[in-house]
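Our consortium's second objective concerns turning raw sequence data into structural hypotheses that experimental partners can test. To show how far this objective has progressed, the report includes one record in full. It was chosen at random from the queue rather than selected for favorable results. The single chain below, 230 residues long, was entered without modification.
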Amino acid sequence: MKILIVEDEAHTGEYLKKGLREAGYYTELMRDGVDGLHEATEGDYDLVLLDVNLPGIDGWSVLRSLRRKKPHLPVLYLTARDSIEDRVKGLELGADDYLIKPFSFSELLARIKTVLRRGIQSQESTTLQVADLQLDLVRRRASRAGRRLDLTAKEFGLLELFMRRQGEVLPRTLIASLMWDINFDSESNVIVVAVGRLRSKIDDAFDAKLLRTVRGMGYVLDEPEPETEP
C-alpha cells in the first residue's frame, strides 16, 4: 500500500514517513499544498494523509480539488485544528477520517487500516497472488499453499514490492530507495540480508522457488518456468 503524506512541519513529516515505512507502507512526503495536490492527482496512491494548515494551498482546498478528480481516493486529515466546526467541515468536504494532533501512532495505524478497508472496492484489489503465494493487503497476512507465513512489517512491504512487480528484475538500488529511503551503498549488505530472510520464509519449505537472484542485476519474483522434457 502506498501512502502520500502532505505535511509542512518537517519533524512531523519525517516522523510519519519513517514510522509508516517501518510498518511496511510505501510513503512519499510533500511539504506544501501545491505539490501535495499535484502528487495526489497524478500519482498512484492508496491513501492520503493531509494537514490543513499548508503553504501554497490549504488542506481544505486540496481536498475540494482532489475530490473532483479522484472522488474515491481515501483521505485522512491529520491536523491540529481540533474544533468541532473544523472536524465537521473536513468530513463534509469528503475526508474519510479526521485525527487530531498530537496523536498516538498506534491509533493512526489503526485508523489507516480502517480507512483502507472501507476504501477498497473489490477483492482483486485487496489481494496479490503469484503462483500459490498470496498477500492480503488489508489483513496484512501472507500465506503460501494455504500455510501462514510469519513476516515482519519490513518483510511484508518487501514482498508486496516484489509481487506488485512480478517478473521484473529489481536492482538493489531501487529496493534500497523504496524500502529504506537510502541510496544504495555497495559495501552494505542490508538488502542481501533482508532478501535472504524473505526468501527463506517464502521458499525454503516448498519445491518451487519463486524469489530468485539475477546475477549482476538484482532480484525477481515470478512463477517458476515449467520443466521441459529432454
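The partners drew two points from this record. Residues 127 and 136 are 5 Å apart (CA to CA). The first strand starts at residue 2 and ends at 6. Both points have been shared with the crystallography group to help prioritize constructs.
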